[in-house]
Amino acid sequence: MQKLIETIVKPLVDFPEEVRVETDENSSRIVYKLFVHPEDRGKVIGKQGRVAKAIRTIVYSAAGSHHKKKTYVDILD
């Protein structure tokens, strides 16, 4: 799932080398923490959060077929 997120995000940003995904998992949920350069944060979120919503939709649907845990994507800088 981390590779999927990186594959989606890297073409969108000016600093693709700073894209990093960390996983925080417990018994009931998985949180994918997406770190980007501060200048790229707006590009990843998009106008009215449309890009972030699209990224989350893809990840949630891909994760739904792999495991039963609740999945979240947080965008951080």
From TrEMBL:
Pfam families: KH_KhpA-B. Its main location: cytoplasm. Keywords: Cell shape, Cell wall biogenesis/degradation, Chaperone, Cytoplasm, RNA-binding. It is found in: Cytoplasm. InterPro entries: KH_dom-like_a/b, KH_sf_prok-type, KhpA. Belongs to the KhpA RNA-binding protein family. Forms a complex with KhpB. A probable RNA chaperone. Forms a complex with KhpB which binds to cellular RNA and controls its expression. Plays a role in peptidoglycan (PG) homeostasis and cell length regulation. This is RNA-binding protein KhpA. It comes from Ureibacillus aquaedulcis. The gene is khpA.
